[in-house]
Every structure is written in C-alpha cells, then in structure tokens.
Amino acid sequence: MKFVGFIAEHAKDPFAQKRSYYFKEKDINPNKDDVLAYLKRGELCVPLMGGAEDVDEEMIGLISIYTDGEWLWPKYFINYLEKYPNFKIEEEFVQHVLKNRAKEVTVTEEEVSKLEKEFYRIAGFK
Predict the structure, then answer these.
(1) What is the model's pTM?
(2) Which of 9, 30, 66, 97 has the smallest number of Cβ neighbours within 10 A?
(3) d(CA 81, CA 12)
(4) If you count DSSP H runs as helices and E runs as strands, how many of each does the chain have, helices first?
(5) Crossing angle for the helix pair 75-83 and 32-40, to the nearest 10 degrees
(6) If residue 44 lies in a helix (H) or strand (E), which one and from where to where?
(7) What is the rounded distance in angstroms from the CA atom of residue 97 to the CA atom of residue 14?
C-alpha cells in the first residue's frame, strides 16, 4: 500500500506531507492530464466524511480515500491538481500511472475491505 496526495493540514496521517511541499513545483507536470484521468477512475476505499479547505479557506474537496488496489489517495488530491496546475505529483506515482493507464482499475470488495482496514491501522484510527 502506497500513499499519494495526502496533506497534513487536512489530516494527521503519518504519511501526509505539509501543503507547502506540494507547492514547490514551478512547472506543470507533463503527465498531469494522464494522472488526473487515472485518479478519477479509482475505487472508493475509505468513505470518510468531511471536507478539506484550501489555503483561502474555501472547500476544495472531500476527504474520502480512493484506490487502484496499490495506491491510495484522497479525493481532494484531484481537486488540488485541477485548481493548481503545478501542484506536485510524486514521480513514483506518475510512473505507476504511465505503466497502468491503459488498464482498467478493478478492485474487489474483499481487496477494498483489506485496504480500508490497513489504512485505518496505519493512520492511527482506533
């Protein structure tokens, strides 16, 4: 299980990065559109309630977590990428997307259940 796009200001997840980390990029990732299309095909994995506020304190997206079976990302990651074209995308994830973009994202209910339980454990939920 790997994580991408989690922002510490929205949750205290141990794998989250501070928002400033994602705004260090100057250039737009040339694979941004492929990444966005891939993220939007993800399966809902952890149906958390609540929203995330952007730096201007406006709602940017939901906190719910999506997956492709290997990676997990918050719904708001998509919204940040759409709003801020130069928002940082981890290179390891970009390579994963490029390798798998033609494949259908299929995750069984059993796999989703396992990922959800593991997410809660790693994130420190009791």
Answers:
(1) 0.91
(2) 30
(3) 21
(4) 5, 6
(5) 150
(6) strand 43-46
(7) 24
